[in-house]
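Subject: Sanity check before I submit

Could someone independently write out the structure tokens for this chain? I want to compare against mine line by line before I put it in a report. The sequence has 750 residues.
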Amino acid sequence: MKVYIDDNEYSASEGETIIQVADRNNIHIPRFCYHKHLSVVASCRMCLVEIDKAKQAQPACSTLVYEDMHVNTKSQKTKDAQKSTMEFLLINHPLDCPICDQAGECELQDVSLQHGESKSNYLQFKRVVVDEEISPLISTEMTRCIHCSRCVRFGEEVAHEKELGLLHRGENMEIRSAIINGVNSELSGNMIDLCPVGALNNKPYSYKARTWDLKQHIGISPHDCIGSNIFYHTYNNKIVRAIPRDNPDINQTWIADRDRFGFEGIYSDDRCKRIMKRVNGILEDFDEDMLIDEINNSIRDHIKNNSNEDVGCFISGQTSSEEMFLIKKLFKNYEIENLDHRTNEIEFEYDHNFPIMPYLGCNLNELSDYDNIFLFGVNIKSEYPVLSIRFNEAVKSGTKIYSFHFSPYQEVFPLEKSYCISPKEIINKLKTGINGVDRKQKNLLIVGPSISYLPYQTLFHSAIGEFSKEIKGNVGYLTDYCNSTSGWLLGNVPNREIGGMNSNKKGLNVTQMLKNKLGMLIFYNLEPEHDFANSSEVIKALQTSNCNIFFTSYLTPIIEKYADYIIPITTFAETSGSYINIEGKLQSFNEIVKPDKGILEGWRVLSELCKLNNYDINNITEVRNKIREILTNTKFDSSAMTIGDTKSIAEDLSFSKYTLRHIYSTDQIVRRSQPLNLTKQSKNKKILISTDLMDYTDNSKSLPINENGKRYKINDFEVNKSLPPRSVIYSSCFNNKFVEGKSSDIKIDK
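---
Independent answer below. Compare away.
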């Protein structure tokens, strides 16, 4: 249909509103309560416009267009209506613009400049609203609030956690936390962006800089495999703020709190800024000019005196694609095959049957196309908050979601069925089938990272594969690090070449490297204390190794104790690179801030080492283009793995210990973020035990554990009735200590 706005003709679709047509054609209509991803309430009345057949000005956000409609956004009638609204909104708004963090980005301020009056007809005292402490991430100045209700609607409609609500009526109306615990959603920071007036502010950023002093940089989230698009704002060569960057195909207009506040960890006190070498048992500063030759000669000498099979390399799944490519090239020239990025795993029988790289099975915006989605070992709300928005949309479109997990949790989107059962019971359930699900429907099975932590994950892959064939469903994966996809595609696993194809040359996986007492160990962007399935095994390997080389951004006690070489490398913010997300999209980023003196760009160090080993690379763009070419020629596989016969879980399952993958302990940077460490999620460090284990406790105070021959007691625990029998659940918070593996079979000593 044809619509006329300011005497210009535009096309419109049935069911569209005036403001939607105007926005699409870059016609500005002021608004406060309207947001394209939220429901329409038409409460602020700022978008009033003149319509040809209406006696009074009408709200553009809620008025549907019709054929030959004539709208005037610049008429005197429109201006008078908007001025009246503006005056009304400013009755109680404080005149504190000079100290407001929203200054320079304030929608109220901008609109007031255009439509405000120099004086008001209302002379009564302005009301004052007492602020409440709602979150360690959000500060409040609720006297500024104009009751647009964006924050309330976001909680109800997008985050699906009703944490803020409207209290009282009329001019006494207030927006308050709906529950005593305040705002704890993993997406809560988006309320800051939605607030048009500075009532909700970024607490860690408060009073650090003025908006006009900031420099904006394009970035990609380094904290999960979704690859949310972000703008980073810097001041005096320091990141002070992160906000979402619109990308309808990935994160829309939202980011998780982990993406918004995680960068704070870059400025931790334990940042590594010195090149060091151990001399006579003591770490001493080492000359940067001699570093490349020193590292190369150390590796070459060790291979010469021992063998290339005596060297092992562990890489973080958070490492950029360019660095992973160069690592593979470098170690190929050293003829070293012991290379692996799957440090959180302990069982690898599935290796040769795994696809070229992990893939979700579809694009993010295609989730709504499926009739049924099955989740295995993943808590979307906690682990992938931005993805929970997509699942909410899918449920609204009719998709049924089934969840299989080992620990109790509650998703923010409705589940058709939630199974909190033991691993053995999950496998049995898949064998018997699920009522109402058949091959005629469009089905998607998503395997989460918790499955890979199990000591018998191949059996799970096999059971999931058989079930997928039965219902003719696609199989997809969610990875634990932001760039694990590149780890597979670029050969950072044993027995794989660049491009993901199987290699004829045999290498050792993570578990084998740790148990084989190798003479030289190389760690890239990893911390032994936190980034491995079994920290005690790593420490044993470090103790028996002759030479330990660490490329790291942070110093930890274990690194300082066992490292022979320490090379300080940049974080994502201090260099250029790329990540491949779980859709298979390569997303690049550039340097945001300059690294401190003494910190080296990882890819440059690797490229210099490559030059000494017959692989010449000129710049990072050249590497990126090679990766892009590989990705272009890669066929994404969403079919089930064909594994064949596998070992089975014993009928009488032993007691099991599982570790929940905590949202704020996923990587080196985010677990050092002070704002995130203050949240409710980070404070939840209790151990959960199933009800039946109370029979084994010592007067309900301690539970005696026997784990691979090591005995210890659990003292600080809670009994959870929802847990499957014989289960102990840990949380992988930063300060938690593990005796053995993160997930393992245990015995209970009476």
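---
OP: Matches mine. For the report I'm noting this point. Residues 363 and 583 are 6 Å apart (CA to CA).
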